[in-house]
Design a protein that fits this description.
Length: 97
């Protein structure tokens, strides 16, 4: 993947985590109830390795902490592992029928 594409995704994805606290499947409200795998840290790492911008990395790190908190509070199983899931409410299930 080209670095320009990574930079674009970095901006979009970091902004999404800043806004919602995690990476939803899309910007549609329905898709915000499901999450993407936590690959944002890998994208941040690749962009940092290319640009070596420590100030940007510090800001990105704060955003990554929000995503980490989501995974450790909303996607943690009883045995301590993380899993994909969906935050559906009863009204969501009824409206999709």
């Amino acid at each position: 993947m080209g670095i320009q594409v990574l930079v674009y995704f970095r901006l979009k994805l970091l902004n999404k985590v800043e806004r919602f606290g995690y990476m939803g499947n899309s910007n549609r409200m329905w898709h915000l109830k499901t999450s993407q795998p936590p690959f944002l840290s890998e994208i941040v790492k690749e962009v940092y390795q290319h640009y070596n911008d420590k100030e940007w990395l510090g800001k990105a790190y704060k955003t990554l902490q929000k995503e980490y908190k989501f995974w450790m509070t909303k996607r943690k199983t009883e045995i301590g592992l993380n899993q994909y899931g969906c935050m559906l409410e009863e009204k969501d299930v009824e409206s999709s029928s």
